[in-house]
Amino acid sequence: MTTALYLEHYLDSLEHLPIELQRNFTLLRDLDARAQNLMQTIDKYATEYLEGLAYPTNKSSSMSSDKKKELISNIQKMFNKSKEYGDDKVQLAIQTYELVDKHIRRLDNDLARFEAEIQEKAAASSSRSVEETPGNKSKNRSKKTKEKDKKRSRDSSEDESVAAKTKKKQKRGGSKAQTAKAAEVAIAAPLTHPSDVLDMPVDPNEPTYCLCHQVSYGEMIACEVPDCPIEWFHFACVNLTTKPKGKWYCPKCLEERKKK
């Protein structure tokens, strides 16, 4: 679940919260107003009762016992009613607190779930990055290098075929100038001696070929067998100076074909 969905769901749950809080606060104000009115009435009755007790000898202001009992009874009832209002206010306050606390707990749970999802995504991302190790990258690099070698070999083979055709024309025409030009085309891509390659620094990730298990260099030829385990060979390692006509098979594949 995305952050936007968490936020949307949480805002939906808060839609009725303001109305509920407003209702509770209105009830609290109403109960408080009633309790205040009762306290004022209690003060009035208490003053009247105390004045009757202050002048017991004054007949005009003397209070009968029934009147005193009535005042005491009214004061007691009002105190009990005021206490009920106070209890109702406490219950409303607790209800309001629990209402807000419920949404706070939900927010905490959503945050915990969101953090857990982020950690899971981070773990998945790290596992994918582990799969993309330097070894895998070197394999991809080796594959690209191999494709470049194939292309280079095809280009050199085309150059050799052009040189061979030029030589045939030179023999027929007997022109020395054409012979020299054909020779220049034929040696345009000179062979590199294996010892020169071995002396050069070699990348450990560079793929190896041929019977000599060395990196690609100079002129190379591919075996025509699709499942050949080596596939590419140096001319010098298979005793070739030029690309043969037709299909060419490496010594191992040729031996297997003869057995069949």
TrEMBL record:
Keywords: Chromatin regulator, Metal-binding, Nucleus, Zinc, Zinc-finger. The keyword Metal-binding applies. Residues 146-156 have a biased composition (Basic and acidic residues). InterPro entries: ING_fam, ING_N_histone-binding, Zinc_finger_PHD-type_CS, Znf_FYVE_PHD, Znf_PHD, Znf_PHD-finger, Znf_RING/FYVE/PHD. It is found in: Nucleus. Residues 165-174 have a biased composition (Basic residues). One of its GO terms (biological process) is chromatin organization. PROSITE patterns: ZF_PHD_1 (PS01359), ZF_PHD_2 (PS50016). Zn(2+) 1 binds at residues 210, 212, 234, 237. Pfam families: ING. The keyword Zinc applies. Belongs to the ING family. Component of an histone acetyltransferase complex. Interacts with H3K4me3 and to a lesser extent with H3K4me2. Component of an histone acetyltransferase complex. The PHD-type zinc finger mediates the binding to H3K4me3. This is Inhibitor of growth protein.
